[in-house]
């Protein structure tokens, strides 16, 4: 394992511990601020995510946005591939997808222009530490190569970190929304 990989692994471990403590203390927090940000983009194709483990829950904000335009969730098609996004409806039928995340029962793919991005840690410069698979980095690079694509990190404030071990392939966030504030870059 190279030094950067070890540094990233240590940063992830510390960030997971901070996220779990925040999740235990503030379940259900942050969706109101996220809804407020999304209200400025009514009808723009959007993708959120189905929260797993201790991720902050975007579903209330996604449900509100779904009344105005398409909302999708990520579908992992394979290792090393960009994500695809299948249309999601509140109370729609779901099936088990990879990594424990649920996906729509029937795939209805589209390309979002806004991505609500889960993360392990973020910094005040738009840096994001993900799970290490590179799915969102590949996907954002692909989408941003076609059109302006807004990346909104959604996280607990406790997930903020300094000195994240970032690489040139890491795609920056445009905004981070926490249960406490909206941070623009």
UniProtKB/TrEMBL annotation:
Signal peptide residue numbers: none
InterPro entries recorded: FTHF_cligase, FTHF_cligase-like_sf, NagB/RpiA_transferase-like
Enzyme Commission numbers on file: 6.3.3.2
Keywords: ATP-binding, Ligase, Magnesium, Metal-binding, Nucleotide-binding
Residues in coiled coil: none
GO biological process, one term: folic acid-containing compound biosynthetic process
One example GO MF annotation: metal ion binding
Enzyme kind, highest EC tier: ligase
Annotated Pfam families: 5-FTHF_cyc-lig
Named cofactor requirement(s): Mg(2+)
Catalytic activity, as annotated: (6S)-5-formyl-5,6,7,8-tetrahydrofolate + ATP = (6R)-5,10-methenyltetrahydrofolate + ADP + phosphate
Keyword Signal: no
Family per similarity comment: Belongs to the 5-formyltetrahydrofolate cyclo-ligase family.
Name used for this protein in its record: 5-formyltetrahydrofolate cyclo-ligase
Organism: Roseovarius atlanticus
């Amino acid at each position: 394992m190279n030094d950067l990989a070890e540094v990233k692994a240590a940063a992830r471990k510390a960030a997971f511990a901070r996220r779990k403590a925040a999740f235990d203390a503030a379940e259900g927090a942050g969706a109101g601020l996220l809804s407020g940000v999304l209200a400025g983009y009514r009808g723009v194709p959007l993708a959120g995510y189905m929260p797993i483990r201790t991720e902050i829950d975007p579903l209330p904000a996604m449900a509100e946005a779904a009344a105005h335009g398409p909302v999708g969730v990520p579908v992992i098609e394979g290792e090393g591939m960009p994500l695809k996004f299948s249309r999601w409806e509140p109370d729609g039928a779901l099936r088990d997808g990879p990594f424990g995340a649920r996906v729509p029962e029937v795939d209805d793919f589209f390309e979002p222009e806004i991505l609500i991005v889960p993360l392990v840690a973020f910094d005040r410069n738009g840096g994001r530490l993900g799970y290490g698979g590179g799915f969102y980095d590949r996907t954002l690079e692909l989408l941003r190569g076609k059109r302006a694509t807004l990346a909104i990190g959604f996280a607990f404030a406790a997930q903020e970190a300094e000195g994240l071990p970032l690489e040139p392939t890491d795609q920056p966030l445009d905004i981070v929304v926490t249960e406490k504030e909206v941070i623009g870059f």
